[in-house]
Amino acid sequence: MTHTIELSPRADRRLSDKARRAGLTIEKYLSRIAEREAEAMEPIEEAAAQMSDEQKRDIAARLAAVGEFTRAAHELSGGAAAHTGSWNREEIYEGDAERVLGIREAA
Q1: 0.85 exceeded by pTM
Q2: Counting CB atoms within 10 angstroms of each CB, which of 9, 15, 27, 90 has the fewest?
């Protein structure tokens, strides 16, 4: 499957340098990154499928608390505090943890 992405000149330069050091074209380098990200989600999805809705809600609440803490740290630092990591925290911080974890509404 083919996708088109737009990169800033800075990101293009940095990723091209990394690809070159790895002996890859930038297209192949970005493809490997995308594949690795897609594979990384499988264990999370498998684990979530085995959890009870109560366990998923507990995790969602904890992640939301981390999100609130991170937002507060960001505000207090004047924007200097930043997230690190590769999975999409924004969805969870935006209150979308239930969808990400596949939580059904409580009856």
Answers
A1: no
A2: 9
